[in-house]
Amino acid sequence: MCGVFGIYGHSEAANLTYLGLSSLQHRGQEASGIGTFRGDTLKVVRRQGIVSEGFNREAIDALAGDRAIGHIRYSTSGGSFLRNAQPLSVNYRHGDLAVAHNGNLLGADTWRARLEELGAIFQSTTDTEILIHLMARSHGTTLRDRVIDALSRVRGAYSILFLGASGMVAARDPWGYRPLVMGELDGATVFASETCAFSLIGARLIRAVEPGEVIWVTDRGTESIFPFETPPHSAGRSCSQCIFEHVYFARPDSHMFGHSVYETRVRSGRILAKEHPVAGDIVIPVPDSGIATAIGYSEASNIPFGMGLIRSHYVGRTFIEPSQSIRSFGVKLKLSPVADILRGRSVVVVDDSLVRGTTSRKIIEMIRAAGAREIHLRIGAPPVTHSCFYGIDTPTREELIASSKSVEETARFVRCDSLGYISREGLLKSVNDPDAPARFCTACFDGNYPEDPAEEPPRVAIPE
Ligand code: AMP
């Protein structure tokens, strides 16, 4: 998963992009980058790690110009090295170009091989670079047309920003997998993956970029275009927005696909309490991701809420891991139990999702060691049985515990006394939108992929 931010027409473009990216930091911590234009010249700074580590005053000051795009990387395609950090930047026959992409393209390996056969040399291993090579071969006369030409050839997920000397393009794939919102600040046009970036910089939310929409921003203003064919949405859907954004990925203070993430999570907790009631003494969240869901569970079950686990916000990645001596070290570094409220109690532990099961197993071991009498695990997402090909970093199917183990087997593996997942229907209901079943992708829970991830890209001619 990644985050993107863009601003067009503001004297403090780089500064505001830095701030916007900081509030999108939860979407990836691997690398960050900002690109700005002054006149016809692009300048890009990319750094490994989080924004505040990578960028200092000097780096921001060097990024002059009134238009910028930025990117936060969480590698879902391509390896984890600086060459894959974004914005990707190139100089081709139409001038300088920067690209920041959230999502995964389908058939990327095939595209890459075909373009290499035609002589393309890739400078990174990200799928995003395919679009740059397709743009370089496009006969479009404007940046806008070259972007549309390239995007109309690919399938998969993109919420994406392109910045050239002539303007900025923001686009969302026709399925609408990943989020992208448009706002306004001091007359400048702003784009971000999540509304929380607008809250920080004081931008006004205008609206979401629609699935299949391309927005062309120049000094003359903004133009909205719907250049792609409407895709054959399956199962009566009108688009395929990612439900996992609401479950886990987005920040609770964001509005995602038009709905409050916090409220969705609280409602999912209430529904979870109705679907999987248990007579516990205390409801505790796995912080931070399970907090809102646990609040909802506590409200609906009338079981008191408590912070039975405390999360340290000061630990980063550590290289000093004792190999044998301290078990579950990674989790202990992040979370510690409050034994005083756990000892002798029947504890309902609420988390947002169970993916591999390995984290839950360690957390439950920790809570048990702190003296809990019983541990009942409740999960605010259905069992994750299928990998995501549209930009969420889910492991291979073999690693997904629910793809091979029943609920009872999973409970035995994580060593809890009972385990309950919210149903798919319950989760969709928690978004509080009667159209939710028609608007969300739930492929990770049901294998109903909107686009077949294994289908090869059609053999259409690529311009030489
Ligand atoms: P595990 O079951 O050990 O894979 O861990 C699941 C936990 O990881 C959940 O509590 C989520 O908060 C978190 N999680 C879920 N999906 C992701 C993801 N795509 N990337 C990182 N963490 C995730």
- Give the distance, in angstroms, between the N- and C-terminal Cα atoms: 32 Å
User: In the CATH hierarchy, what is the architecture of the largest domain at level 2?
Assistant: 4-Layer Sandwich
Radius of gyration: 23 Å
CATH superfamily descriptor of the largest domain: Aminohydrolase, N-terminal nucleophile (Ntn) domain
Number of domains: 2
Structural class by sheet pairing and helices: alpha+beta
Low-confidence stretches: none
- How would you characterize the largest beta sheet? 7 strands, antiparallel
- Report the strand count: 23
Helix content: 25-40%
Walk me through what this model shows.
The chain contains 18 helices and 23 strands. It has a 7-stranded antiparallel sheet with strand order 3-2-4-1-10-9-11. It has 464 residues and is an alpha+beta fold. Helix content is 30%, strand content 24%. The longest helix is centred in the middle third of the chain and has 15 residues, at 261-275. The chain has 2 domains: 3-231, Glutamine Phosphoribosylpyrophosphate, subunit 1, domain 1, CATH 3.60.20.10; 245-312 and 322-443, 3-Layer(aba) Sandwich (Rossmann fold). It binds adenosine monophosphate. Adenosine monophosphate binds at residues 248, 286, 289, 351-360, 392-394.
